[in-house]
Amino acid sequence: MSDSLTYAYYPGCSGAGTSMEYDMSTRAVCQKLGINLNDIPDWSCCGSTPAHTVDHTLSSALSARNLQLVEKMNLDTAITPCPSCLTNLKTAEHRMEKDEMREKVNKLLENPYNGGVATKSVLQILVEDLGLKALKESTEKPLKGLKVAAYYGCIMNRPPEVMNFDDPEHPMAMDNIMKAMGATVLPFPLKVECCGASFGIPRKDVVMRLSGKLLEAADDIGVDALVTACPLCQMNLDLRQSQVNSATNAKHNLPIFYYTQLMGIALGMSEKELGMDKLCVSPRNALNAIGKEEKK
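Above: the chain sequence. Below: its structure as tokens.
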């Protein structure tokens, strides 16, 4: 296995719970593609969505602790599937470029973080380090006949000076992966619009309105499913889809896949090992569409 495809892996808290199928499919896909994931030993929560609203120093320390653990692993790159985790880890690194902030953060850590660990999304290394050509060549069951749109959410590529990946207004990484593996990818006009994120508890009305707008746009362009890379986005569009229907008097029945789940199908994996049974909106019609175009 190539050292260039060996990374420290940060699964994030949701990967062990609400987005278990994302973690399952990510690990399965990476293993099949020869990407070596080394779990960060004793990793801890990065602060998720609320920590930075309370204290920037503490928030940075929560993430820097994990980056320091990567240093001890003698690896220079940490990857995570979750955009929220990615944002926190990259923001901590960015903030600690300033001496004053680095000193404040390191005072809170048992072992100081010296800097220098690159943090990337799994999506980024699939596109940039492995490459679309390798993905196309690895495809065993092309996704022909399946029409999808890629929904990135509002933080995967923003702010650009911190995230430093893809286009902040018109990202194409997931689009290109799905195309490489045979799917028909339709342009999605709201690909970086917010779904309501973590407002699901304090402002359910906001989530219903914003997620409803996304589902309506997806139905309007006639896709079989949406693909996403964010646990919060997936939850709002999948788990809450019936709530959106009730709140907006709609009848959406749209599967919301993690892009790694459809990658796994294209790589010849079983639905069980990709966690398809954990999706709330049935993926059956979308999965049944695969191969129909070819048969015709």
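Residues 204-221 form the longest helix (18 residues).
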